[in-house]
Design goal:
alpha/beta; 6-stranded mixed beta sheet; about 40% helix; Arc Repressor Mutant, subunit A; Dna Topoisomerase Vi A Subunit, Chain: A, domain 2
Length: about 375
């Protein structure tokens, strides 16, 4: 998939309609309509050395009208393509949630979605086979709540015209809200030395309150938990276009390591967009299992699901490095996990005065 630039409405519409035309051509030639989709599992993830990202391998599955289930999936795909093509023609947009409910108005019950997961997965399928990103479909997720605070001046395109925003001087304590499509942003100027992507809102607020973005010339990006695509895209653009190192600061548990993994390596479900979303040289600054031991942090015991997730990560190609193998094995040994906010046990300023500066120097970021 070509992901370096966004398509205009007409180009995106044409590529969608070409996909629907393929179904028609298969009918006309006497073939059973079908759609081939890469298998979206970690066993089908491969490292692309040229692009330095994780992508889907050669394994795939076929959606075919030979079965009732397959025929319904192709029917739903056709109705969705029609909806998206009309949306683009009218220069409108909708959310993934709205698409799920909109399907209830379609004239065939068999074309309607049973769950939002079903409609979400179909949009991802259409992205892959049409080579059109959902942002170019004018499909939006629900608000992610992700914000930016730091010495960055940008220009944002809006329906009301362009506006220039400084992500410290022109925003309140909440910061600058990342738009659904960050490719509408133009970077004008910055005085930053690095990007710090932070998992939790509480830690992001602590850093801003303590003036970390000012003192260390840092662009602080709140990930809002599992980061939305728009957040990952903006981080990648700041890395590539502003030449800023990226570090990820998250909780010390297996689910947070996956948050880091989605920023650095891409997620399994969107591996077709890794080149567009992933920042391969992003570094993990903490919380690390070694921090739990070194700083004697307050902890919680690992649950059975935590242990299973850690063991799964040891088999995940995105985590098969010496660093991650050491950290995960140590965590399985101590049987503990810890949150970012646990650093407050050493004082509210410890994270900004000691922990982060020390680690950033060790990582040669400062």
């Amino acid at each position: 998939m070509s992901t370096s630039t966004s398509l205009n409405e007409q180009e995106a519409r044409e590529q969608l309609l070409e996909l629907a035309a393929e179904f028609y051509d298969q009918f006309a030639e006497g073939d059973v309509p079908r759609m081939q989709i890469p298998t979206r599992t970690k066993s089908n993830i491969e490292y692309d050395e040229e692009k330095d990202v994780w992508v889907y391998g050669d394994r795939s599955s076929t959606r075919s009208a030979k079965t009732v289930s397959g025929a319904q999936k192709l029917l739903k795909a056709t109705y969705t393509i029609d909806f998206l093509a009309n949306q683009l023609e009218e220069d409108r947009s909708s959310t993934l949630r709205e698409l799920y409910y909109l399907s209830e108005s379609w004239d065939l019950d068999e074309a309607q979605f049973n769950t939002q997961d079903e409609s979400n997965n179909l949009i991802e399928d259409l992205e892959i086979v049409s080579e059109v990103k959902r942002e170019d479909f004018h499909m939006r997720p629900e608000e992610s709540g992700a914000k930016v605070m730091g010495p960055l001046l940008l220009r944002e395109q809006t329906r009301r015209g362009d506006r220039e925003i400084h992500c410290q001087k022109d925003v309140g304590q909440g910061g600058y809200q990342i738009p659904n499509n960050p490719d509408t942003i133009e970077f004008l100027d910055n005085d930053a030395d690095f990007v710090l992507a932070v998992e939790t809102g509480g830690m992001r607020d602590r850093l801003v309150e303590n003036g970390f973005d000012d003192e260390y010339n840092s662009i602080v990006v709140h990930l809002g938990g599992q980061p939305a695509r728009a957040t990952r895209r903006l981080i990648k653009r700041m890395r590539n276009e502003l030449d800023l190192p990226v570090v990820v600061f998250a909780d010390g548990d297996p689910w947070s390591y996956r948050i880091y993994g989605s920023v650095a390596y891409g997620s399994i479900k969107s591996a077709h967009l890794s080149e567009y979303l992933a920042t391969p040289d992003a570094q993990y600054i903490g919380i690390r299992p070694e921090d739990i031991v070194e700083y004697d942090l307050p902890t919680d015991p690992l649950s059975d699901s935590d242990v299973n997730a850690l063991e799964s990560e040891l088999e995940d190609p995105r985590f098969q490095t010496e660093f991650w193998e050491e950290q995960i094995e140590l965590q399985l040994e101590i049987e503990k996990k810890s949150e970012q906010q646990s650093l407050a046990a050493r004082g509210l300023d410890f994270v900004t005065d000691t922990y982060l500066p020390t680690r950033l120097e060790e990582m040669n970021v400062l």
